[in-house]
């Protein structure tokens, strides 16, 4: 690439930035060996995030956003399919699915899987909302 082309590409990129800033940010969450990666995320109050959930395991997993109390309730609850519920998803073995969620006020939330034994095994992470 010539210098002129590199400069032109940079200027074009800068010109496109304002248009891109209004679309939701995508955070990819991998589920592997019954753990999430990443295990901690930072978002802004009021931000809408598009989660790309990738289940790499040969078993069903969940991605459920909630408070500690809500997670405890899910741990003893019986829902099998969480798809279509706000901030919740169920993923079949090997499935990739997207979930959009708008965060409220500043604080912290937990995301977790409540398939039997997974939460206790450590399939959970934290979201800090600032
Ligand atoms: Cu799981």
Structural description of this entry:
There is one protein chain. The protein is α+β, with helices and mostly antiparallel strands. The chain has one domain: Sandwich (Immunoglobulin-like). It has three helices and nine strands; from the N terminus they run H-E-E-E-E-E-H-E-E-E-H-E. It has helices at 3-20, 68-76, 118-121, and strands at 25-32, 35-37, 40-43, 48-55, 61-66, 88-91, 96-102, 107-112, 124-129. It has a five-stranded mixed β-sheet, covered by helices on one side. Strands 2-1-4-7 form a four-stranded mixed β-sheet, with no helix packed on it. A hairpin with a 2-residue loop joins strand 1 and strand 2. The radius of gyration is 18 Å and the shape is globular. 18% of the residues are buried. The model is unreliable at 14-20 (pLDDT under 50).
Portion in strands: 35-45%
Q: Assign the CATH architecture.
A: Sandwich
CATH third-level topology: Immunoglobulin-like
Number of strands: 9
Lateral arrangement of strands in the main beta sheet: 3-9-8-5-6
Helix content: 10-25%
Question: What is the CATH superfamily?
Answer: Cupredoxins -  blue copper proteins
Largest sheet: 5 strands, mixed
Shape: globular
Low-confidence stretches: 14-20
Number of domains: 1
Distance from N terminus to C terminus (CA atoms, Å) equals: 41 Å
